[in-house]
Amino acid sequence: MTSVWRFVSNALCRITGRKVAAPTVSEGSTVVVSNSLNEFTTRASFDIKKCDLHGLEAGPPLKTELSRDEGLRFYRTMQVMRRMELKADQLYKQKIIRGFCHLYDGQEACAAGVEAAIDPSDHLITAYRAHGYTYTRGVSVREILAELTGRRGGVAKGKGGSMHMYAPNFYGGNGIVGAQVPLGAGIALACKYQGNNQICVTLYGDGAANQGQIFEAFNMAALWKLPCLFICENNKYGMGTSVERASASTDYYKRGHFMPGIRVDGMDVLCVREATKFAADHCRTGKGPIIMELQTYRYHGHSMSDPGVSYRTREEIQEVRSKNDPISLLKERMLSSNMASVEEFKEIDIEIRKEVEDATQFATSDSEPPLEELCNHIFSNNPPLQVRGTHPWAKLKSSS
Amino acid sequence: MAAAARFLIRGANSKLPIAVVGSGAHCSFGSTFLKLSLNCNSGIKTQRRHAAHFTFQPDPVPTQFGPTQKMNLFQSVTSALDNTLANDPTAVIFGEDVAFGGVFRCTVGLRDKYGKDRVFNTPLCEQGIVGFGIGVAVAGATAIAEIQFADYIFPAFDQIVNEAAKYRYRSGDLFDCGNLTIRAPWGCVGHGSLYHSQSPEAFFAHAPGLKVVIPRGPVQAKGLLLSCIADKNPCIFFEPKIMYRAAVEQVPVESYTIPLSQAEVLQEGSDVTLVAWGTQVHVLREVANLAQEKLGVSCELIDLQTILPWDVETVCKKWSNELGGG
């Protein structure tokens, strides 16, 4: 009976946004601080899913604390990513974005959670589904969308496009599957060599997990105890191939064999944060590399040419959206712990919508990069290099 | 199934028109004379998109190989593979996503027809695919490996150049992987950018032991692919992806071969020799016509077809003729 009352009371409070009479909480969370002067709980503790471990005695904690501010920041970050990707989808269908576009919606908790647990001075490299990480690594929505539309205001001057966005300590954005993993190991070596206590977060997908060069990188990283945090974003499908049909072992966190691994619920931003903290700490304390498998899901198909429903059912996608959406999960948690109100979230949504609209406006109206820049930066050279165009009379120049 | 196949093309435009709009791809010779070329004033805010184009010129209907059917490039490839699987019980086709028909539909229907032990998917591992293919070929089966885009062939470069090309030589003819054929979509398509547009034949052109073949259209594609499969040397067959849908010809339904290492003279001429392969053959056809029209220059057009080993005699004989030699 009390639970029914609690449920009704919660629901009423949620609708009206009013302070709860008694400290009512959701399953698995406890209010840590509730300031009666403010409306909202400023800090709450939540249970998070236990991570499967490989080669480790202990794993990330089972409880984590979230402050109101952190929660709202997480919400904001993930919602920006979501809206940005949906806007990219729209622009692509309008043929304002061309070429390739691999969207990240559904996987926001991974990027947001990882970034929250590392420092801006740490390094990160990922594959081609990179818009989310480009944002979390500090590039504005404006610059991302302008890069997608190929304008000079884009983060890569309009010449890189969807798969080639870079930022300080963010090494892209890489088109060739798996090629970024040895690179990440190398960056980690540089960190160790320079003794700067930084780590390199090296991401790859379930498809790339079967590339040979990944295992070469694993071996080098483990042999030399590099501070490399390998993360496999397992979204269950490598383009159109489900993990069961591609991999002899789908326990990607165990694939490092001699390297410890953790399997993490990638749809829960708090879980991702805790696991990343744990793993980053492992690397920073000289214990060597570690693998994290983030179990996540992408709503869109592999790329914009893929409707995403020929190898999985609409029901499956819908199920994840309704039961496991990362943004909804966070929102529900915060609402039921009275950390924020529905109106607040709505306001944030409106702000974000405006931000994305402004960015779109810029991205669609900015000018394209000038033709003189087409061939720049092929080499590092002093005198400009002459580059042959599509025929011998088209003379282009490469300056750098 | 077909709709699914179309959508799974990794980023490639599902409709590849004959005139592909996109700057930077083949610009016809005529544009330098007739309109502003690429490197002109770019002060305007939005640059004009030059129709990067070639006009596919179909071959005349071949009459010597039996009844023909209208096919585009990917269908002619499917037909060649179909003939092979029917006539050669050891033939197997493998690669990424080939089971459902492939990202360019080159293997549509083959798995249903011949079984999942003969047409099967591999995981995402090019080096593994080729290495595995070499093994299959050495053991005596006819191995047809697909690399999803030529741009991804580089992890397999070592296997191709160091293992496949040199197998016969280093074993003193005791072993060989002549039964291996590697197929890959090749060349620019307008929106492919860095990793869906490459033409890497030059990298392989210096590996003796290997054969590198590039067709200019469906009739050539089927004949040359069947020759590659039959050839007792490892072959790489690059298929110009821009022509998969755009190039349509009447293609013989039965098996037939077009000889390797034999260049084809498409047009006789006396002043200049133009040598091309793949998509560029069609561009140069236009060039030859324009040169005749505008400059009164008589061009000889040769389709090299096999890049390695290439038909030196045909090409050089033409040159020596031009120079006044015998």
UniProtKB/TrEMBL annotation, chain A:
Keywords: Carbohydrate metabolism, Glucose metabolism, Magnesium, Metal-binding, Mitochondrion, Oxidoreductase, Phosphoprotein, Pyruvate, Thiamine pyrophosphate, Transit peptide
Cellular location(s): Mitochondrion matrix
An individual GO BP term: pyruvate decarboxylation to acetyl-CoA
EC supergroup of this enzyme: oxidoreductase
One GO cellular component term noted in the UniProt record for this chain: mitochondrial matrix
UniProt cofactor(s): thiamine diphosphate; Mg(2+)
Main location: mitochondrion
Ranges where the Dehydrogenase E1 component domain occurs: 77-370
Domain of life of the native organism: Eukaryota
Annotated EC: 1.2.4.1
GO molecular function: metal ion binding; pyruvate dehydrogenase (acetyl-transferring) activity
Reactions catalysed: N(6)-[(R)-lipoyl]-L-lysyl-[protein] + pyruvate + H(+) = N(6)-[(R)-S(8)-acetyldihydrolipoyl]-L-lysyl-[protein] + CO2
CDD domains: TPP_E1_PDC_ADC_BCADC (cd02000)
Pfam families: E1_dh
Job of this protein: The pyruvate dehydrogenase complex catalyzes the overall conversion of pyruvate to acetyl-CoA and CO(2), and thereby links the glycolytic pathway to the tricarboxylic cycle.
Protein name: Pyruvate dehydrogenase E1 component subunit alpha
Species this protein is from: Cynoglossus semilaevis
Taxonomic lineage: Eukaryota, Metazoa, Chordata, Craniata, Vertebrata
UniProtKB/TrEMBL annotation, chain B:
EC number, as in UniProt: 1.2.4.4
Transmembrane segments: none
Catalytic activity, reaction form: N(6)-[(R)-lipoyl]-L-lysyl-[protein] + 3-methyl-2-oxobutanoate + H(+) = N(6)-[(R)-S(8)-2-methylpropanoyldihydrolipoyl]-L-lysyl-[protein] + CO2
Lineage top rank: taxon: Eukaryota
Entry-linked Pfam families: Transket_pyr (PF02779), Transketolase_C (PF02780)
InterPro entries in alphabetical order: THDP-binding, Transketo_C/PFOR_II, Transketolase-like_Pyr-bd, Transketolase_C
Molecular function via GO: branched-chain 2-oxo acid dehydrogenase activity
Cofactor(s), names only, from the UniProt record: thiamine diphosphate
Keyword vocabulary terms for this entry: Oxidoreductase
Occurrences of domain Transketolase-like pyrimidine-binding (ranges): 71-246
GO biological process: branched-chain amino acid catabolic process; response to nutrient
CDD domains per UniProt: TPP_PYR_E1-PDHc-beta_like
This protein's name: 3-methyl-2-oxobutanoate dehydrogenase (2-methylpropanoyl-transferring)
Lineage: Eukaryota, Metazoa, Chordata, Craniata, Vertebrata
